[in-house]
Amino acid sequence: MSRPEEIRDRLVNVHQIGSIVSTLRATASAHQTEAKAHLQAIRAQEAAVAEALSVALALGGTAAPAAPGTGITLVIGAAQGFSGSYGERMAEAAHAAAQAGDRLMVVGSRTLGALADIGLVPDWSAEMAPHAPEVPPLAIRMADALFERLAAAPEAEVRMIHADPDDIAAGPQHRSLFPLDTARFPPDARPTPMLNLPAQGLIAALIEEYVFTEICEGLMLGFAAENAARAEAMGRAQTAVKRIAGDLRQEFQRSRQEQMTTEIVELATAAEAVTES
Prior knowledge:
Distance between the termini: 35 Å
Radius of gyration: 29 Å
Helix content: 55-70%
CATH topology: Pyruvate Kinase, Chain: A, domain 1
Order of helices and strands: HEHEHEHEEH
């Protein structure tokens, strides 16, 4: 059995690790809460654009029809570690999309690293925003890059892969971004508004805005999901740290008791030897 001093040092190290784990969990939980507030605003914007699309479609315009062609997949991956198997699952989803022939646009350095390990280089990549307020600027960059590619390949189908922070165990979620399914926007029968644009041009602009808003939502969901996975992983780590600390405390008590017993026996033996002499 180890000496009490050695066990005490190990226990100090375990407590330090526990402090780090607690900080990581608290930070991840705070990021989740922050993301939820931003999601409300993003979804309000999404609903407003959807309403405008319904009105515009009632004017007799049409959106571009869906046509099978080359695919572009946006992957909202993991930026950091300490999040269980979350990063690996997002990398697997990206790899599967690439195997299906899609060009990849990937967010998240950890997912990018996993793809690099298998020799897969995305068509476009960026680091995930470290804080929720920085997600919209990232969404602008990603949307701009996407629309540049769509200008060169307007027949491309665009999909997005992200995770649901409320159901991490469900794995990566897939959604179609473009061409837009206009059946989702039933024509609004309200009085015709005053327009300064042709209906077709207005619809095209609204579709771009709607796709951007969905990208922003997917990024925010991915940001929240990674932090949810990290909070969950750190919760498991906290349980393990507490168990190890408890075991070490028990081991320390046993070792200390044995040490004291040994010292008493040695003192008694020494005293007996002195008496006999």
